[in-house]
Amino acid sequence: MKKTIKQLRYEQAVKLASYRDPDCPELAILEAQSIMTSFYRLCKLSERNLYLSNDANKANLKSTTESEEREQKWFERLNKVFQNKYGLCLCYCGYMPSIGIRNENGSFTEKIERYFYE
User: Is residue 42 in some structural domain?
Assistant: First the structure.
């Protein structure tokens, strides 16, 4: 049976929680779910900003610039959370951030998968 997006996201939250505590207590999973919710909201903002910056009528508006600045601040704050709590980092691979680790050769390996509703 095919898993739902909710089930897939829960599995990734459990996987994220295991980076901090291999026993994965329920409280750690709830915290990971909250952080992942923030991550998905950042992804949506990244997608929105992509559309705004590629729209000739909206690309140079103050609201677009403010939205891009908000995205940058959100990314930096969330990246610190991933680094400090889980030893992972965010990296833009395309227009949306991914969660993973930076390799010694400068490449990036995704460790937590993203699942989106269509």
Answer: yes
Per-residue pLDDT of 62-88, as tens digits, reads 999 999 999 999 999 999 999 999 999
Could you tell me if residue 117 is inside a domain? no
Q: Given strand 97-102, what is the order of strands in its sheet?
A: 89-92, 97-102, 108-112
Whole-model pTM? 0.92
Using 50 as the pLDDT threshold, list the residues of the chain that sit under it: none
**Strand (E) or helix (H) holding 84:** helix 62-86
Q: Count the domains in the chain.
A: 1
Please indicate, yes or no, if residue 24 is contained in any of the structural domains: yes
Dihedrals φ, ψ of 48, to 5°?
A: -60, -45
The number of residues making up the chain comes to 118
